[in-house]
User: Fold these one by one.
Assistant:
Number 1:
Amino acid sequence: MSDSTLQARPETRHVPDRLNSRAFRTLRSWESLLLAVAIAIFIVNSFASPYFLNVWNLSDATFNFTEKAMIAFAMALLIISGEIDLSVASIIALASTAMGLAVQYGAGTPELVVIGLAVGLLCGAFNAVFVTIMGLPSIVVTIGTMSLFRGISYIILGDDAFRGYPASFAWFGQGYIYWVFTVEMLFFVIIALAFGVLLHKTNFGRAVYAIGNNPTGAMFSGIRVQKVKFILFLLTGLMSGAAAVFLTSRLGSTRPSIATGMELEVVTMVVLGGVNILGGSGSIPGVVIAAFVMGLVTFGLGLLNVPGIVMSIFIGLLLIGVIALPRLWTMAANRRRG
């Protein structure tokens, strides 16, 4: 055997190591694909509309996703654990109605914020009791509470609307920290970092993954499965209450139809971010990028005067496509092997 052959072998052995390196895996990740899609959408939008690259328009575009993303971060953890909450938009309606009712009795901005968060927390606890204590399926429970919470708002308001919020309350949904950087965007970043640390850097986050992969195994490992799920429903309700504060502040009024259909966009954002709808896997960075993707798409379509119903159709197709894509990929791979 020649010396050249002997010298070539070590390099050949190291090729798989290079292919399996962290950098290569990162390039192949779902988050990297989403980031490429976001950049592509940004470029297309910049050519499609002359108003897109205006910094103030881009600042306004963040309103298309910040409130939904706040809920999506908590929803991501809930779905990873194998559960779901479809009542989040109705929680927003009920929390907003409670804040509007409090305004009629002279409540100030601090009280309104506390009421909005408290109502969201109570609604989350209501869902959690039926799912974790009574053992009912979360999709059935939250479909029921989706109608219940919004129905209460319609009973209180009817066709009327609550207005007259304090001027200081507008800071949450209409304020700017500096130049084009909004208050909502600041809270979006803070909440994203908080949930990122919670899911990826703590024992609680590891417990969430374990429960989503094998709840029985997690229970025998000493994880208090029902307690963790109870906390996740509380977090989802709390984030829905926070979204109600920001959305109500931005609109300056409360109607029972507020946030109608937002639950579909939140779930789409989570699944688009790479969270397995069946639980067990997903990441907060993926949800962050998915939020920007959906925000850029809806803002770009809005600049082109695309009707809202068309956007709803697009979001529905996007949700179906993202859920179906892994299955189609697996089927194609199996067919190639067969």
Number 2:
Amino acid sequence: MARLEFALWDGFGKHEMALSPTAADIYDQHLKEAVMAEELGYESYYIIEHQNSHVGQITAPSVYLCAVAQQTSKLRIGVMIYQLPFYNPIRLAEEVATLDHLSHGRVEFGTGIGVAEHEFMRWNLPFFERQKMSSEALEIIVKAWTQDEVTYDGQFWQFDEALPVPKPYQQPHPPIWVGAHSPASLQYAAKNNYHVSQNIDVDTVIAEKFDYFRKVWTECNHPGPMPRTFLMRAVHVAETDEIARQEAEQPLLTSRALGREDIANTRIGFKGNSESPTNTELGRVFQGMTTSYDFWIDNGLALVGSPETVIKQLRKQSELCGYDIFCANHRIGTLPLEQSLKSMKLFGDEVIPAFR
């Protein structure tokens, strides 16, 4: 396996935003953490986009990452993922290309289709057409980055000699990632030679899916190199295993449902994943996350303990799953800020160097 890279996952929960008089205070704190991550040796920094949601409160991710780019110099930055059906693809191509220039070529472009129906309903978007919408959108975005003009006559978007500018700083374009859970999305990423990211399945399923992705990619006879794989997990590091569990257990068990009731009590309410074998398995995982701390640990969904314990957990997991980038989420639910910052520093000071 190639050298393991480390990334920071930065979540902005609805509960966190609600506790502050202004969003500016929250943004300022998270920007400090991005700078801290760079100083600690994390190599990249990721946020996620959601709309109409309790899960993420960064609804203008490109704007926020412009601020991150201006306050850092080496940290690669990305949205994992932009929900493609929510965008005019030419505008998104121009936004990301602009961000790529403002960061001097540090952008990683994460793409996905979205999973929660209530996010789409509120914008009157066709939830069950999101896969086709996303495929069209990504095709247009790549054209906008690599062609002087874009003429496109699709089912969802039509352009007649659009003239997108600028072209990206990175040539031919920033690395493209697909947030892939289903076999169809893994096949799509492999056939198009895109990188793959994951954040929810248990470790054994992750290993199977990454192996399947590499198998399909190999069968496509791409010239290489093989695309990279990315896994995000909750991480809490403390002075001892006992302290780490004491601090992390309740925040882990309540993190999935945090703020969900607020959405459920609106007029439209909460309508989650559609029925499919993939989503049935995800439902099982979500249920386990809310009922058992051991479920988190035994399935690799969280790495919790002293630096020595987390190093062991990480070695075991990376050998099983074979990922290239490990993305640590230290902001777990209602975990107090001082504890998440302690975890982040211990991970940077003691865990990352063990893999160097």
